[in-house]
């Protein structure tokens, strides 16, 4: 049986396995954090180009967070020393910024989480460095469709957590893509990572009931090849075992009385590449 906890005001919350249900104050906090996160990725669209270092993008993101009154939630998190994650081509997630430069045709995921007034705005988007191959573009398009189908599944009355994963997995399998299971979405709010875990594959009608006030991320990681992942010796970078391309999109959302609210939607309409 899944336990739910009502969170009100400035109440201290703990990662205790309960699924948090937030009030309007929480919604307002997440709207601000999510808006800043989305605005930052809108600007990143103009930074990802062949010849640009991933470190320079990380620096720009850190400055944008600080200018927005936030701090990077990833900076110092479990020893991580950067302000975002930048994952290129066969890197599934948690790619570490460095002096590595983007190359023509790269597909790139940039994942940001500003911590603003105690609330986490967690989101990621795919970007193109130059002109990628057609198979890469198709993977990116399908991954975005998977995200939005997962959100649509969450918006239905009486939905359960497994419905999200079922919608994502069903769509990805039509294209014979692999759905990564080693990494998943998660509850968030005042905590960076909290219950529930949002696995991107599942069965209809299973898992916790989605109740108004729940905040969590949906962030499908879809591989062009097999679904299997491995983490490199740096302890962070996750890559596809078969070196196939991987793509990911992520939104932070809330369950509301009449559906869902997306906290991290682009105000400029820059939802998926190519970006005008």
Automatic annotation (TrEMBL):
The gene is map. Residues 28-257 form the Peptidase M24 domain. It comes from Altererythrobacter lutimaris. The lineage of its organism: Bacteria, Pseudomonadati, Pseudomonadota, Alphaproteobacteria, Sphingomonadales. A divalent metal cation 1 binds at residues 111, 122, 250. Monomer. Its EC number is 3.4.11.18. A divalent metal cation 2 binds at residues 122, 186, 219, 250. This is Methionine aminopeptidase. Binds 2 divalent metal cations per subunit. Has a high-affinity and a low affinity metal-binding site. The true nature of the physiological cofactor is under debate. The enzyme is active with cobalt, zinc, manganese or divalent iron ions. Most likely, methionine aminopeptidases function as mononuclear Fe(2+)-metalloproteases under physiological conditions, and the catalytically relevant metal-binding site has been assigned to the histidine-containing high-affinity site. One of its GO terms (biological process) is proteolysis.
